[in-house]
Amino acid sequence: MRKPQFISRSVFVLAFFSVSITLMSQATFPENGVGDTRHGYYAFTNATIVKDGNTTLSNATLIIKDRKIISVGANLKLPAGAVEIDCKGKYIYPSFIDIYADYGTSLPAPPQGGGGFFGPQQLTSNAKGPYGWNQAIKSDADAYKVFSVDDTKAKPLREAGFGTVLSHVRDGIARGTGTLVTLANDKENFVVLKDKASAHFSFNKGTSTQSYPGSMMGNIALLRQTYLDAQWYKNKPAEEGLNISLQAWNDNQNLPQIFDANDKWNDLRADRIGDEFGVQYIIKGGGNEYQRVKEMKSTNATFILSLNYPQAQDVEDPNDARFVSESDMKHWEMAPTNPAAMEKGGIPFCLTTSDLKSVSQFWTNLRKAMEYGLSESKAMDALTKTPAVALGVYDKVGSLDEGKVANFLITNGPLFNEKTSIIQNWVQGEKYSINEDAWTNIAGTYTLSVNSPSGTVTYSLDVKNNSELNMVGKDTMSTKFSYDGKNVKLSFAPMVRRQKGQFGQGGQPGAEQRPGGGFPGGFGGGGQTTQLPASATRLTGFNNGKDWNGTGVDSMGNTMTWTATLIKAAELKPDSVKKKDAPVIGKVIYPFLPFGWEEGQQPKQETILIKNATVWTNEKEGVLQNSDVLIKNGKIAAVGKNLSDTSAKIIDGTGKHVSPGIIDEHSHIAAASINEGGQSVTSEVRIADNLNPDDINIYRQLSGGVTTSHILHGSANVIGGQTQLIKLRWGANDEDMKFKNSAGFIKFALGENVKRSNFTTAGGNTRYPDTRMGVEEVLVDAFTRAKDYKKEWQAYNDTRDKLIKEKKPTTGLSPPRRDLELDALVEVLDKKRFITCHSYVQSEINSAMKVANQMGYTVNTFTHILEGYKVADKMLAHGANASTFSDWWAYKMEVEDAIPYNAAIMQKVGLNVAINSDDAEMARRLNQEAGKIVKYGGVTEEEALKMVTLNPAKMLHVDDRVGSLKVGKDGDVVLWTDNPLSIYAKSLYTIVDGIIYFDRQKDEEMQKFVDVERNRLIKKMNGEKRSGAAVIPAQPSYQIMQTCSDHQHSHGLLVIDSNDIDNH
Amino acid sequence: MVIAYSQANVLPAPAQKGSTVITNATVHTGNGQVIENASILITDGKIASIGSNITIPAGATTVDAKGKQVYPGIILPVSNLGLVEISAVRASSDVQEIGEMNPNIRSIVAYNADSKVINTLRSNGILLANIVPQGSFLAGTSSVVQLDAWNWEDAAYKTDEGMHFYMPSLLARPRFGFGGGGRFGPQQQPQTDPVKEGLDKIEKLKSFFREAKSYLAESTHKETNLKFESVKKLFDKTQKFYVHANTVKQLLIALDFVKEFNFDVVIVGGSDSWQIADLLKQNNIAVVLGQSHSLPTLDDDDVDQPYKTAAMLQKAGVLFSISDDDGQTRGRNIAFNAGTASTYGLTKEEALQAITLNAAKILGVSDKTGSIEVGKDANIIISDGDILDMRTNNVTDAFIQGRKINLDDKQKQLFERYNEKYNLKAKPF
Questions:
Q1: Which among A216, A266, A1014 has the least Cβ separation from residue B300?
Q2: Do residue B297 and residue A323 have CB atoms under 8 angstroms apart?
Q3: B74-168+216-368: which CATH number, 3.10.129.10, 3.40.50.720, 3.30.360.10, 3.20.20.140?
Q4: CA dist., res. A194 & res. A615, Å (int)
Q5: What is the pLDDT of residues A1040-1056, one digit of tens each?
Q6: B369 to chain A nearest CA, in Å?
Q7: Chain centre to alpha carbon of residue B8
Q8: What pTM was computed for the model?
Q9: Subunit contact B390:A908, Cβ cutoff 8 A
Q10: DSSP 3-state assignment of B26?
Q11: Helical residues (DSSP H) of A358-497, grouped into ranges
């Protein structure tokens, strides 16, 4: 109980600031009244000062003046003119920094409804003024211009320990600049520490109502093109005029660049954009980074992590639990490990209160992160130094050093200890009280003297803490007690026996909130019902230092005065940090889906010898009976009879069939978006930019023998996006799924989809084209522009080369604008990129080839091509391949004449024909779809199987690597139980690169493991519910399925077509 | 050669005259049996006798099925055939009426017997189909048709055999907001409780049936209520009550209609029916499974769950059929859906029965069709090989009510047309 001299000062300070006179008024502002200039000159002495995560000074002094730290150190001389505050037993820390706040700015309301793929189109920006073309590029927005102090919002942040935040307006793909401000309740002129402190980006259009971009690929393409445009704009090209969006973009480049990516794969997508343009983003994660730590590390980025975790779901009812996936439950279990996993991975990160339902969750969730392995020092760094360094403002905030802003916390113990409270949070040299009651420890024994008219009665008080005491007079008394740092309240009555035990445990108010905490409860709140009789004596008074004095009323209404005098202060027990046992949790699996592999359990490349099978070689050897296939080092090593290899895993193929892996020429799995329908020409978008390895359909299709899939852009527009060929390497990351060194392709589309014929859009279709006449012109126009563009670059390069050759300066020469859309079309003209063209009716097929001939390119593949049989001869002359369905028809007008004999006719005419899926379900039966071509038109079985293996390999220009069982080709092989064209064929093993990714026997074991893991997680969630934790109703784990928006699918109850989602 | 190149030249066959005998057949009767080397005698549209030693009347037309497989005509148990010509073309659709309470709607009156889709199904062995109205709640009645007719009256095989109820999903639908971008995009909690909303709605349907029952018990009515009148046959079980439902919750609620109203309930869809197969059996609830060729419900599910569901119902003794509601192939692959069910647990004869005799039982026409048995209509197909496998399925002959039908269709004609154009007949495949 030592602090007498302090208390008086503390009261003084409190009073001083409560009348909102602040330090040093602003020079230019007129004074209304009498000048009162003060400097806030304080010395905090005898404290344990934690300057930063690594430096702690004992018995040290902190001196502040004029909002800044003057000096910090041990044995500092108390300067004259400074008010001394004795902080014996107290700790001083730099206050926290939240690098991802929207404090003092307002979030614009999102547009409501009407969007989605089928919604009306807005092809140009609605923004008025000399802005750029896209409404989602808001690079000219500056948070500091709209910032205003908002003390209601600042208060909870200060209570949580924050002193500084970086605030920006979360709207748009480019969001302009953020501003670094303190949480002081002061004039904005002082609160803003750095006006433009950061530049912000996201994958979210926000309030933009413009159709483009309408996909993840589009977001990425827009950002890439804007980087290029901004570079080009530096020379102020006349053809652009004034463009303040690009101007601001350039102006903001020297700031720290922060990207709100919000998901582990998006983190990588953002980082790759940065890599391309020499920018290292600070990445705001999505809370699932722990699922791919290695990949996160490879970004070299500093991350911003939220402490928001999914809530437990109410899965008590098995019929509700039925629709909650293992991965959603696993994520619930593992989300609190996110910061610890990043720490373990050696990845720098900041922590933010962003995404929390309420800032008051901050400490609870931070402690949870620490319980799950986050270290104290890392937590400290993540809240102070790391954000300051990331923003380049470590000279201003982030530690307690001379010259920095006087933002610090005073606590009554080590900051992260369970029982420690933040007493005060000083922001820019101003004190904000958080838990004043924690300044002093009032625990101890007291003598209470109550002076009533009938005389003085004495009691002995044993004060435990600010809300509990034991009181003994003649009898033991029932009591209710509270102390808030100043005001003491005590009610008491003789204890009634049967009520024994009901007192003294009236809860530890705010326990979960400390040290941030609100005001500790007890009196006044009415939340704590007391069992005290109405006749209880009620005392109230104040702590005056050594003793407490006050007045009271007894049950008879008699007034009285009272005094409590300290006899002996309680001995302070050091707050031992109770190390909780690390929680038992499941493991990360790759991918983070059922049937994913645990670390170390991934299947490895093996030497595999399949013996004595029927082998479909797809080579001139044809189908070999009783033959062997040897796979070694990921390649086909031998095909023949009586092969042997001592190192090989032997698989008995007796009675079984071996075929090359199935290749699906037309697939839409494993991608975050498929259709960029915002414009009729979007050759700038790339499926490769948004591959999604977390798609269960990869595994399901492996079970159907698929090893290679061509992931196509959808058919929303005439010139769609660039495609990506992948191998179904279950568990690999996005980059590693790619079929390396394969030829680039691009999707084109014709007919009803690009005309938007089958949408019932309000006001009808407004996007050109609306007829097949217009479709043809879009192609002519695009390639005409591409040719002019090519010429323009050619001319520029020639001139530049000439100047260089003549050793003349090239400074006056500015390059043409690089256009990603036209770049891709030039690649087509240069035969470096190939077309796969969605098409149905003969007129459009014919016309597309005429345009191609006119412009000097070839349509490599017509896909769907259901009327290909009508123009097969023309296609042959053009040099096109055909990739079609076996037996689809009558789902839309343009397939009225579709026939299942199409593939057979085209094949017989001489075309290279493939059967594709365009459907996540049918893809796993493609072998049987090929079987139908025997039935419809009578091609041979061997030729039919080639339609899903060698033929697609040819049209994808990878037949030197896959598509047949030829020595040297990739070890992509399937072992079937039966003739692969038969309905009775099941894949036993699906092998990619000599790795067994699907093993039917192992699949059964994995299914059992999924069931065990589900059961464990359901029990755990139920336990959470029973322990009284808040749960939300069970959330069915819907999956968003990317489709071509061309036809219906049979994907089950929990699948939502991405096209039905409003994704502004 | 004269080729009309249009389905218009494919004429419905006239009534059978005289007798027809299919000889040297391997007969898959549809009730689980296989009879080798048998003959089937068809007289007056009916199956007169089956066996290896039957008496064949003089002048009987002989169809030699040597080396071939003979089956009952396949029945498509749930279909929009003849109600939808081209899915995306609104003008060609007569499948869903406005409103939620449409018990008086009848599919048969809109059935287009000239639909180009019909003949493509016959080519794959489908001879009968149940024409079902779609809806968002109580949608109306379905009728069974035979697929060789001049008009819907000729086609009608059993009219208004069932009433169709599309049960609310009772599953929370998420609302996806900003951003998108995969599974971890912002997913907001729905505002309302779909289970409660659905149950309230279903309760209203029950009230409707309670009132209808009382109404129907009255001898005379001051005002005629067409909707009450239209559900009469449900109460005497001469009409099935089809509940389109998938989840266990839905299926358990469907039981109410057995318990309270004593309806003859059939589940349509039933993707999770395997979870309560024993309860379905106990309550004599039949199931028409949606197509086997669909994805599992949840990521966590057995990769092959939809393929295995049929075998699980078979094991539990549930009467079930398999449908093919694929929007792109329009039902023509029903035999292959059954084939897949066979790959994953059913015997071939059980798989066949699921799309023949079981379907007939469920649709209430097993007295007339569904199996090759004496006295039944001669609805018979002959295939070169196993009908359940696309590798061998090739229907060479088909009989509906003893009439040998023309297996030509628009697609075959277009095939012919372009064989001519490219002169392909001369080239070997």
A1: A1014
A2: yes
A3: 3.20.20.140
A4: 71
A5: 877 776 777 777 788 87
A6: 27
A7: 25
A8: 0.92
A9: no
A10: strand
A11: 362-371, 376-383, 385-390
